[in-house]
Amino acid sequence: MGSTEQHRPSAQKPQITLLLAAPRGFCAGVERAIRIVEMALTKYGPPVYVRHEIVHNRHVVQRLQSMGAVFVDELNGAPDGATVIFSAHGVAKSVPAEAARRKLFCLDATCPLVSKVHAEAERHYAAGRHILLIGHAGHPEVDGTIGQLPAGAITLIETRKDIAAFSPADPERLAFITQTTLSVDDTHELVTALRSRFSHIAGPRKEDICYATTNRQQAIKSLAARADLVLIVGAPNSSNSLRLVEVATRAGAKQAVLIENAAQIDWRYLEGAATVAISAGASAPEALVGEVVEAFRARYEVDLQESVGTREDVHFNVPRALAS
Fold first, then answer.
1. Which residues contact 158 (CB under 8 A, 6 or more apart)?
2. What H or E segment, with its residue span, contains residue 278?
3. Nearest CA-CA partner of 85 in 324, 291, 322
4. Is residue 4 within a helix (H) or strand (E), and if so which, with residue range?
5. Can you give the pTM of this predicted structure?
């Protein structure tokens, strides 16, 4: 008697569409900062000390640590004579002054667009203006910018309430600057409120919010309303990544979530989802986005669609000490 073999069809994966925002991930300032650490390690050998996280991303920091970078909160964490790198967020003037006193060899990885804001602050201060800085308290970029000038020269503005409560000594001699990684829309509202209250307030010659922040926010805006879920790859202490979550929500996303990597995806959010939009903050490596896509491919038949966004070709040079 012959035998019969039963064949069961393999379970098919559900379909899902992934919308990849473009541009996303690393900006020129982040690429420059990471390159400075890598080049310093090659040229001078480990250990190289970095004051604060070079950029706000654990994956990046851990990779550089494996190469010999040592991250310290303050300069006193580095021994005399060490090579020290200042993070992309910028530092107060007291930091390089202390480094010079201790004869540390320093490399400045401050993003040139942050340095531009520092220069604006200096210019307004020299012109006798009190400066209002739109930004988030405690962020290292904000601390660094405030530390460019004597105490009391800059007032931090976070909300409309701060604007209403501010009482200037001379309303005719005011200027504003902004953190580079803010929400474009939120900042516009605050600037409008400032100009409404102080009609003579001076502003930046060119927008302070950096090109990368602006482009990434615009890209996710264009996708958010089409998605059942928006995933932003980035660190919880990354200002530009947090702003992408906020922007996506306001642009109509049913749900927007920040994840550091693929392991943090809560697949319960995907129940019944047909379309997911993905972006990454300016300090998040593209490899992490790739891992997220592969995690979806392990569970779904993926239709991967990359949006067409602003093409970025910005490049910043490294310090001369490394280029020579």
1. 134, 135, 136, 137
2. strand 275-280
3. 322
4. none
5. 0.91
Question: In this structure, are strands 105-108 and 69-72 parallel, antiparallel, or unpaired?
Answer: unpaired
Q: Which residues of the chain have pLDDT under 50?
A: 1-10
**Nearest Cα to Cα of residue 88 among 29, 134, 148:** 29
Place of tokens 């970095």: 50
Rounded to whole angstroms, what are the CA distances from 218 to 187, 236, 307?
14, 21, 11
Q: What is the structure's pLDDT at 8?
A: 45
How many Å apart are CA 310 and CA 212, to the nearest integer? Answer: 10
pLDDT at 11: 66
User: Looking at residue 202, what DSSP letter applies?
Assistant: B
The predicted structure's pLDDT at residue 3: 42
Angle at CA of residue 97, ends 94 and 100, nearest 5° = 155
Query: Which of 313, 272, 289, 299 has the alpha carbon at shortest distance from 21?
Result: 289
Domains of the chain: 15-26+211-306 (3.40.1010.20), 28-111+316-323 (3.40.50.11270), 113-197 (3.40.1010.20)
The distance of Cα 313 from the centroid of its chain, to the nearest Å, equals: 18
CB 202 within 8 A of CB 173: no
Q: What is the pLDDT of residue 5?
A: 43
What is the token pair recorded at 118? Answer: 């520092």
**Torsion 188-189-192-197 (CA) sign:** negative
Give the SS3 label for residue 8.
coil
CA pair distance 266, 262, nearest whole angstrom: 9
Q: Are 14 and 49 in contact (CB under 8 A)?
A: no
Backbone angles phi, psi at 85, to 5 degrees: -115, 135
Residue with tokens 């559900």: 14
Q: Which residues are catalytic?
A: 141
